[in-house]
Amino acid sequence: MIFVDSLSQLRINNLCRNEKPYSQPVVTASDINLQGRLPEQSLNNYSVKVVLYNCTGEVFIQDVTNRFRIQFGVSIYNFRYFNLQLREWGEDFPVDCFTLRVEIRNNGQLIFNKITETYQRLNHSKRCYIELTNTEWDDFSLGRGYLRVNQDQLYNNINELANHFEPVYHQGTNKWNLYFDCSQVNKITILRSNALTFPLTGVLGGGIEKNLPIYAVYVIDEDGCNLPYTRIESTYDCLDNVTGLYYGDPKLLLNYHGNDPDLRYSNSQWIESEIKKQPTEYEKQISFLGRVQRIDVTQTYKFTGLIPFPQWKMEEIEAIFSGKRIYVDSEEYIHRKGVVFKTDTIRNTCSWLLDVSFEKKVITNDFSCQDDCTTLCTYYVIWGGLKDQAYFDENGKIIGHTFNELLNYFNSFSDVISIEEYPSSETACQPVAIIKIDSFGFLPSFIHYWEYSPANRVYAQKDDCVLPKNLCNGVEGLCLPPNGIKSTCEIIEDCQRPSSIITNCVDLVITKGGITLSKDWVLASGSKLEADQFGNAMILLKLENHKIPLDTNLLNENIGTLNAVMQPKNTEFIEKENLSVMIMSNGDLYVSSDNLDFTKGYLELTLNINYNINGN
Known about the structure:
By secondary structure, the protein is mainly beta. The strands form nine sheets. Strands 1, 2, 4, 5, 8, 9 and 10 form a seven-stranded mixed sheet that branches. It has a seven-stranded antiparallel sheet with strand order 27-26-20-22-25-29-28, with helices on one face. A hairpin with a 2-residue loop joins β44 and β45. The longest helix is centred in the middle third of the chain and has 10 residues, at 311-320.
């Protein structure tokens, strides 16, 4: 949502001849999410007032400040900002069409006084659903499938499902959605058997039992009609350079009595639109013998607005397409390039029509090798910090402060068969810790270690349950020492043989090392660490630090800890121009320098040093 300076600038007061008034739809209270920048001032004593007005902004209704979550902070880019998010509607929220005026003072001085464009609160209801595959649905028609609801109700044929659920088949996905009232159901289990059985005991010989995830969706209902609204949102690591909006945590909280330190800005909107499946694109790779080696399947979709949008709303929706990942109704889509809007075909509306193509992630069938039916497990590789440290979930909620608490967190998910710590010593990169989970149910896409930050994110990855091969993918300069090296020395006799021949063949074994970086340090591409069997070590580190204040000097700054391959027997001191490096016998690496590079707005540091591990 945008701010304007005065009522005369509201779009509703500046309509073109054929233009219809537009209000931004909102469903839940948290959909009202506002951010603004504040001027730099030496004073630091903030107050805020949020006032509710009617659609045109002319009629005062009430002060609603206490209904909002509020945060005043300083970003990591050192600009001041505020975040506002509506906490709840409350039973006494008086209007459905409204504007908001935000007034902010610093030490009593008015520094921000703007009004939003118009909001329209939509009537809605919440519905839940489960997903069944075509195979699972067919089992019900054959008497092999059962649904257990809330541990006591059992349904085992299609007629019973139709009476208690609202089944909807989705062409193209080969899935069924079964809709139901969220308030009536808290758990659904599917039971499938290879033989007809009477499952009142819940025991199916030779079958399987699985808890199904329950999904929620909002149904928009205005004047008795279900309206085709979709929710579109995008994600950012920190800053959107297009709009200037800040999505990170505050570097510093400003002085405000009701500051909410956990409030983060998010960008999601309800818009009158629909998304429809388009013909699928297939790309085949065929060998010169005519054998299909690979097929890439791209599912395409058309995302279309159902009403024209004013200029300000067009720009807001376009900004969503500058995000890292785009979601429509919680499903991720890919937008490769191209314009998002086109001019309205009706003259004198001053409006724009949403018309854009999306793709789903490419699905690949690879036939170049034999079928691989390896059993896969889920792994979480923790790269930094210590085993016992703070861990956070996808939404920034604290999981715990120990490794055992993290294991218990994963063990709390349904359908987990086993969970264990996989030995880091078995990998080439030797991270802090690895969690291995065998599960056929839902697991989080990622967690965070040390702090809730994109730089500290640990993604789930699939790999062989018995012998994982890809846990170190993406880690440069790290591998296990080579083994099984064989060399052959051959004496070539030419003409007269010398009186004595002495040969000495030595294989130079280069072992790549690694480093566990301290907090806030990031390894850039082009870094390399290695040592040979004679103890000669070489370190080339290209580092970045986005949190050290500009023009700061380093004094015995702990960069990280080298692994065993790179650790010297005794402390090594290395002096270079404007740079001092100390490497402890335990691998701790310290740097001091008073000549640092902040030209890109953050610290860039390059270390290029050589030493001998044995002290020679």
